[in-house]
Amino acid sequence: xxxxxxxxxxxxxxxxxxxxxxxxxxxxxxxxxxxxxxxxxxxxxxxxxxxxxxxxxxxxxxxxxxxxxxxxxxxxxxxxxxxxxxxxxxxxxxxxxxxxxxxxxxxxxxxxxxxxxxxxxxxxxxxxxxxxxxxxxxxxxxxxxxxxxxxxxxxxxxxxxxxxxxxxxxxxxxxxxxxxxxxxxxxxxxxxxxxxxxxxxxxxxxxxxxxxxxxxxxxxxxxxxxxxxxxxxxxxxxxxxxxxxxxxxxxxxxxxxxxxxxxxxxxxxxxxxxxxxxxxxxxxxxxxxxxxxxxxxxxxxxxxxxxxxxxxxxxxxxxxxxxxxxxxxxxxxxxxxxxxxxxxxxxxxxxxxxxx
Length: 356
Prior knowledge:
mainly beta; disordered N terminus; 54% strand; 8-stranded antiparallel beta barrel; 13-stranded antiparallel sheet
């Protein structure tokens, strides 16, 4: 549960400094490289759990000694929480913001403001995967001044995400000056790019009730700024894909990882990366498909059988998201995979339907 709560670190909205505890619209300025921290409280368990996010912005600069003195488990016992996550330090990258303020509460002598209360209805709400979209409820506008450098992720198909905050959680030495070369450190999925760009004109990034955000493996947070998906009505498409895969050294301990190529309706030719775990006679995992017009993400659950030196999988899959033309894709499939036990001769087939 603690690992899953990291996903909730992406949901905080920015509130105006000095605002009163009651809800009201406000504007905060001077945010570029402003340090902040968050305390996230989880109460209850799915489907009725609620995560409340408290933020220091505008109230204090999250003093290092105060922050280091917190013990998450002790704080959870003190406040009667299921779990507490200490999320920070972080630094904002925009210059200013307009947003809605919330109530204020003291934590060990320092005030924090509530910036979100998030219902946690299923275990899926607590899953965090780098470079995977998460839609949150938020009404605010970030503003970057003309001439400011922004740091962006470009996804397959051309979608652009702008970094809103960098984190010093996994790498306490990360600073604003190091962001320009961050792309050399990140383990980007196939087809993704990182870039630094100087703004020729001011940038405003608005969330009108919802925002799409992702994090990289260092927990830096980005918001979707532009997408290339055509403004057309979503349609259902028949899916019939064939592919070949081979096992590679897993980037995540305790998992199996396959790479390969695929081709078929309706996507054309592309590549696949599948990461999963083998337990109790079943492969459970996630996949990324990359095509010229975008990428497709999904999950699989496949029981397997072993005969001699061969292994066969047969189960179900689901499309859960995408980029470019396939943004918002959904659908279910039947998945089959046959391979040798050494994992080097996989033959894959996927049939079903997808809507995008």
